[in-house]
Amino acid sequence: MTPKDVPEVVDPADPKEGGELTVAMTASPPMLDSNIGWAHQTAIVTTHVMEELLTYDEDYAIIPQLAEDYYANDAYTEWTFELRRDVLFHNGQEMTSRDVKASFQRTMGVSPRASDFANIEEIRLEGDHQLTLVFSEPEPVLPALVAYPYVGVPIYPADVLTEVEEGEHISIDNYIGTGPFEIDEWIPDDYLRLVRFEDYSPDTRWDGPTGLGGKRIAYVDEVLMVPVPESGSRVAGIVAGEYHWVQDLPKIEYYDLKGDPNLETVLQKAQWAPVVYFDTNEPPMNDVRMRRAIQAALNHDHIMLAAAELEEFYRLCSSFFFQEQVWHCDIGEQLGLYDQRDPERALELAEEAGYDGEELVFLATGDYEWMYRMSIVMAEQLREAGFNVDLQVYEWSTMIAMREETWHLNTSGDSIPFDGTYMNYWHTEQDWLGHSSPRIDDILEQGMQHADFETRYDVYCELSKALYEEVPFIKLGDLHELHAHRDYMHGFTPFWTPRFWNVWIEE
Amino acid sequence: MVDYVVRRAMGLVPTLLLVAVMSFVIMHLAPGDPAARMLGVRATESRVRAVRAGMGLDQPLPQQFLSWLAGAVRGDFGRSYVLDRSVAQAMFERLPVTIMIALIGLVIALILGIPIGVVAAIRRGSLVDQFLSVVAIIGVSVPSFWLALVLIFVFAMQLGVLPSGRYVAFSADVVQALRHLVLPGLAMGVTSAALIARMSRSCMLDVLGQDYVRTARSKGMNESRVVYRHALRNALIPVVTVTGITFGELLGGAVVLEEVFTLPGVGRLLIGAVNSRDYPVIQGVILAIALTYLVVNLVIDIFYVYLDPRIKYG
Predict the structure, then answer these.
(1) Do residues B80 and B283 touch, judged by C-beta distance below 8 A?
(2) Out of A124, A335, B131, B185, which could bridge B104 as a Cys pair, Cβ 3.0 to 4.6 Å?
(3) Are A483 and A249 in contact (CB under 8 A)?
(4) How far is B87 from chain A (nearest CA, A)?
(5) 3-class state of residue A191 by DSSP
(6) What is the pLDDT of residues A52-111, one digit of tens each?
(7) CA A31 to CA A171: how far, in whole Å?
(8) Which of A28, A237, A398 sits opposite B31 (nearest CB)?
(9) Pick from B30, B33, B165: which is nearest to A233 by CB?
(10) Are A228 and A237 in contact (CB under 8 A)?
(11) Over B210-251, what HEC string results?
């Protein structure tokens, strides 16, 4: 990072309370219900308003948040959570074990991740501040499943959840959490207003914020989140001083924005991992040699530069877990299967697979410019290597729908996998793109059987090896994002989602 | 006259029904699934099916349309899959913004376009006429969204005298509300001004060539009186018709400009609904825009009677 991108050193004595922070986001959250909605914009709001028993720190390691302590029996069939005391919800009620139980029950009822908690036999309340989850089978990885920051287990008041009818989403009226901000108003597509929760209980086990937890303090009175889908409008707004902070600016504006004395640019590392998926059931992609051929042909550097536009905004990295994570494992590079740039080898493998110039349908979307650009470059690389590629570009929803027709390759982007269990979607039972691999299933099941980090790390490195050798998809690199804020906004540091706690404005 | 108005009002119904059917069919022809979009790419097929059933999307299409129609005639346009509110509420919150932008665009278009057209006609063949004609052609050719970006660059980013976007309600702050409407209004109005200018010029030239105008001049009437008292009113009659069409176009053009200026209008609502396949909202918005367009043109037609005494509706 260049010196201008290094986050400001925060002097704890400096923060100033007060003011309304106006931030421009790329989109309005499609829903507030974080039990159901996968959208990144939903997660941004959730992390400010809701809290969970466990969460992630700055290194993406699990830390307690609403839990004071947690532990399992030797068989990992019972997990006990001791809760922090005197933590208040936004409606003034104190958080108790009854609320946690109700929140788990809702998750088990409506969440797309309900299967992660399918083995819970009983949720036993042991007083107001302790509960035990009893499992029918050992669940050594429960902390990772609980700490999920989106589509997770946000803790609501039990009384509020009883008012939510079956099939209903959580709405602004019952969006009650324990976070440093509470929701004040939401007009979809216009703005969402958060206000400081005056009775918030900061977690004093830490000296300051870390990741999505730690000691979080709301210095500003309000955060006004304004959806500004047009990137040029976000640029105009931050330059004109109408917003204090803006999300995801066109990277081509980087140097101009850096040169503006009123602005601070922020380089958000590893926001996305561009990938290309294969339909492993559709000939010729059902032959692993054909997928290895595509893998061999690609020049990742050129593809990532096309996606990022500037060198500062990407890095080559074979690991499915980012460098910032404790799970980082660059086995792809070690095996020589990442960024091979070998079209001759590609053609050899394709011929071995019996490829005879059949058309390969390559689905892409124009809705995300970086995906579109990288798809163009990738298609050209494959054509130069001798593949007959039909690049079809659609808007997002149509592209997803076209996966039900004949296709062979599809570009997309993965977000940060917080834990090895994130990779469970490659298990046959998850039916992700119809892919099935007994080897991968076996490794994923092993990953669910161990609690200690070192063992799990080895398992997920082995998973990475299997994914590179079987190639159900190819990871292209790490793509960074560009944010910016006015110079009188202080305390902001980049993370997986923007964090407006421990941020203040001093004009 | 009353009979005419009643007949025209009743004629709106089959038109709106046709719009509803066409938009429903086109909407469902497009690939994409609101349940899959809402649940995200990692959703399992079974979960998507369950949510689709909850939305009523597993029903046959004719049944879905008839269910929607039965609600629509009672004023119930359904509930947004995404916005956690009824379609009517979503539109009620946003339609005033779009109508306000379109109205301001129209006012700017008329204030700029009519004088330009009249001056060009009066000075026909002169350098002024040629200059104004070129300006009008440029105005017609420039895309409104490009003009919007230029206006933002100049007035918001460089000069810092006007905001780059967003909407402030008049009830909150009249001055700020007006400041936030200037650039969108200009972007919207300039293109239409060019059209109105060209129309005004043509109509004015036509009227100035009429016998009664020649008679007025030969009687020694002052040229200003000839133009502004006798010719202009008659020349503006066709312009009134164009105004109604222009207003409808402005409503449609608001879709793009609302994105550029971050305005919470019906246009952005529609774009978001299309992206997320929020069928009830798409259906409701298209119907609302069609109804607005039809009503405005009906009002223009009625107003026409008062402008041109020769017109009688029986």
Answers:
(1) no
(2) B185
(3) yes
(4) 12
(5) strand
(6) 999 999 988 999 999 999 999 999 999 999 999 999 999 999 999 999 999 999 999 888
(7) 8
(8) A398
(9) B165
(10) yes
(11) CHHHHHHHHCCCCHHHHHHHHHHHHHHHHHHHHHHHHHHHHH
Q: pLDDT for A199-216, tens place per residue? A: 999 999 999 999 999 999
Q: Which string of DSSP letters, residue by residue, matches A474-496?
A: EE--EEEEEEEEETTEES----S
Question: What are the φ and ψ backbone dihedral angles of A462, each rounded to 5 degrees?
Answer: -65, -35
Radius of gyration of chain B (CA): 24
Structural contact between residues A224 and A193, judged by C-beta atoms closer than 8 angstroms: yes
ipTM: 0.82
Query: Which distant-in-sequence residues (6+ apart) come within 8 Å of A486 by Cβ?
Result: A238, A241, A243, A244, A245, A262, A263, A264, A505
Name chain A contacts of B90, Cβ cutoff 8 Å: 188
| Closest Cα in chain A, distance from residue B4 (Å) | 41
How far, in Å, CA of B19 to CA of B27, rounded?
12
Residues in chain A with CB shorter than 8 Å from the CB of B260 are 230, 232-233
What is the Cα–Cα distance from A327 to A463, expressed in whole angstroms? 12
CB contact under 8 A, A226 and B262: yes
* DSSP bridge pairs for A213: A210
DSSP, residue by residue, B152-166: IIIIIIIS--S-SS-
User: pTM for this one?
Assistant: 0.88
Residue type, A495: F
**CB distance B152 to B222 below 8 Å:** no
